[in-house]
Each structure stands twice: as structure tokens, then as C-alpha cells.
Amino acid sequence: MNQQHRFQSSLKTLGLLSVNKESEAAINQGDYKAYIKVLYLHKGYKITVDFAAYATEQPTLFFIGPNQYLQLETLGKQPGQLIYYNRDFYCIQIHDEEVACDGLLFNNIHNMPMTVLTQDEAALIDPIFAQMLDEFELNDASQEEMIRTYLKQLFIRSTRIWKKQHLDKTLVQQPTDLEFFRKFTQLVDAHYKARHSVADYADLLAMAAKTITHKFKRLNLPQPNEVIKNRIILEAKRLLVHTSLTAKEIAYELGYEDPAYFSRQFLLKTGESPSGYRAKFLLPTT
Predict the structure, then answer these.
(1) Which pTM was predicted?
(2) Structure confidence by residue, pLDDT tens digits, 201-221
(3) HSE-up of 160 (CA within 13 Å, CB side)?
(4) Most buried one in 3, 16, 70, 94, CB count within 10 A?
């Protein structure tokens, strides 16, 4: 039997869903696509987030935005958990930027949505889900705030683990730089269709383009120009696979006046033409 708990009040929504055979179809069909999601899976799962495949060898957390495509390929023996919520329920935009709904876990330079947990780390994460489940069983007036508190605890612990796994130690020790890189990625995600150069983002950040490039190089991060290109190509892939737009229409959608130039850029980044990339994902006709 599929277990799902849901809090809804006015525009605020948060749900907690057991990931198993009963919920697999709903997840894969996009029933929760519009929500921000936290997926907690144990050993034996295989999933695809956008176009990257992941296999879990131990407890693993995934942080998935509403614009990302999620597909469960193989289920593990132990049921997982899916938290889904909207920005009205939880989104800190002024304070606590790292653990906001668009914080490091969801919006980072490495485009890495996964945090693998050691046994000790899982022992800290498991009780949060258990407490959230217990809270759903109580019909208490403070339920909303308690659930939000548990969600924030989950983000704080997960962000600490994520930084330890994915960031250079020097960067972790320099929170100002860390927030700058998060802000840059955030701006790219908001403006990639209209702004294609580092200079465009330098204007938004009120600094020289060389300063941005130097910051990235100093800490051995992907160059800012690559961050921009990768975001554009990711969206192109999504549109090629999940819509019927032509390559020319996609080029215009992504801010390119010359579709041929866009196709050349796509070929350089992926090794395939847009039409060739789309053909790989077409289902065989019967």
C-alpha cells in the first residue's frame, strides 16, 4: 500500500511520499514535476536526473528543482522517501541563502544534485524523516511550523555534507566566495536565454569580467563561460527530448539569432547535431 502524507494550507503545499512500486508511475509521469523535491534512496536504485544517470550504492539524497526531469529506472529493495513542496511552503531568499529553496543543494556550479551518505551521516538524516512522519500523524495547530523546521534541519545537515564532498576545502573556508559562486549560478539559471557571455553577468554583478574569471580559476572551478554554455546546452537537450520544437525554434527560444551557429555550438559541446541527439531518445514505433 502506498503511503503519502500531505500538508496543504492556502497556497502552501508539502508532501511526503514513500518511493516504491505503487508510486513509481506517478513519479515518472511527472505528477510531482512542478514541485521542489528531496529524494532519499537506499542501495540499489537507478535514477536519471535530466540526462545524468545515478546508481545508489548506499543511502543517497537527491535535490531536484521543478525544472528538472526525474525518472526512476530501477527500484531498490528498501522503500525510499520523496519530499515535495512549493516555494510558498519553504523558500528563504534574504537570510540563510545556502539552505534556501535555490541554495547550494539545488543551484551549484558543479550541477551536482546528489549527496552520498556514510553510515554515520545517514544516522543523522533518518531521524529527520521519522520525525516528519510522526508530525503528520498529529493533527496539531503547530504542524506546519514543525514540518518546516524539520525540512530546514534536513537542508542544513545536507548542505554541510555536500560542501565536504563537492567543494575544495579552501572554498568552504571562504563563505564570501562560496556565496558569490552560488549567486553567479543563480543568475545564469535566470538569464541564460538572453545573456550568453561572461561580460553580460559581469554587468549584473557590477564587476569586471576578468575578476569573475580570476575567481573561478583561483579555486580550480569550471570557467564561468563553461557554466553558461552548459546551462544553455542542458536546456537545449530538454527541449529536444521533451518537446516537438524544431532545432531552429529551439535556437530562437534560447536567444540565438542564427540557428546554424546554435547547431554548431551544440555539436561542439555534445559531439552530436541537435537532430542526431533527439533521434537517440525517440521511442521505436510498433
Answers:
(1) 0.79
(2) 999 999 999 999 998 887 777
(3) 8
(4) 16
